[in-house]
Amino acid sequence: MQDEIEWDASRHLMSQALLYQVPIPPNEDDNWTKSHQLGVTYLSRKGANKIRADIQAEKKTKRDSFLSVATLAISLIGALTGVLGATIGVLAFIAKKN
Fold first, then answer.
1. Which of 30, 26, 35, 31 is nearest to 6 (CA)?
2. CA 61/CA 63 separation, integer angstroms
3. Read out DSSP for 74-94?
4. Exposed / middle / buried, residue 48 (Cβ in 10 Å: 0-12, 13-18, 19+)
């Protein structure tokens, strides 16, 4: 029963690793455990933790990139709004004078 849970969790982690383009450890090292009950190989705790950490790092990198662009865009919108407001104020003053 536990092997089935570990195998299913491993499959999920590997699909996430593929999605985020994170390398999956080679099948020869201690990142894998062989289930004699199911006849499959699944990620050991060490391997699962490694992939999980790599996925989190990749997510953080993508999130930081997005936040940098979003911050720049919001700053530009704020600056343009200020310039537009000042321009409207100057035009209104000129129109009132004439």
1. 35
2. 5
3. HHHHHHHHHHHHHHHHHHHHH
4. buried
Q: How far is CA 98 from CA 84, 87, 88, 91, 95, in A?
A: 21, 17, 15, 11, 5
d(CA 41, CA 25): 13
**Where along the chain do its domains lie?**
2-97
The pLDDT assigned to 39 comes to 84
Confidence (pTM): 0.70
In the block, residue with structure tokens 């720049």: 72
Backbone angles phi, psi at 16, to 5 degrees: -65, -40
For residue 30, pLDDT beyond 90: no
Nearest to 50 by CA among 29, 73, 65, 75: 29
Helix (H), strand (E) at residue 95? helix 45-97
Both tokens of 59, joined, read 């997510």
